[in-house]
Amino acid sequence: MELPFHLRALPEEALDVLRFFGSRGVPVAYAGEIMDGCGLSDRGFGKVIRRLVTKGYLHMDGDQAYRLSDNGSRAVDELAQYDSANPAQPRSTSPARSMSRDAAPVQRRLLVVTPGRLVAGQATPIAFGFQSAEPGEELDEPVDVLVRVSVLNGQPSRPKDESFTLVNRTEYKPLTITPAAYDALRIKLEAFQLDPHSTDISVVGGMYVDLPVVAALDGTPAPVAYGTDVTLSRM
Question: What is the pTM of this model?
Answer without folding.
Answer: 0.58
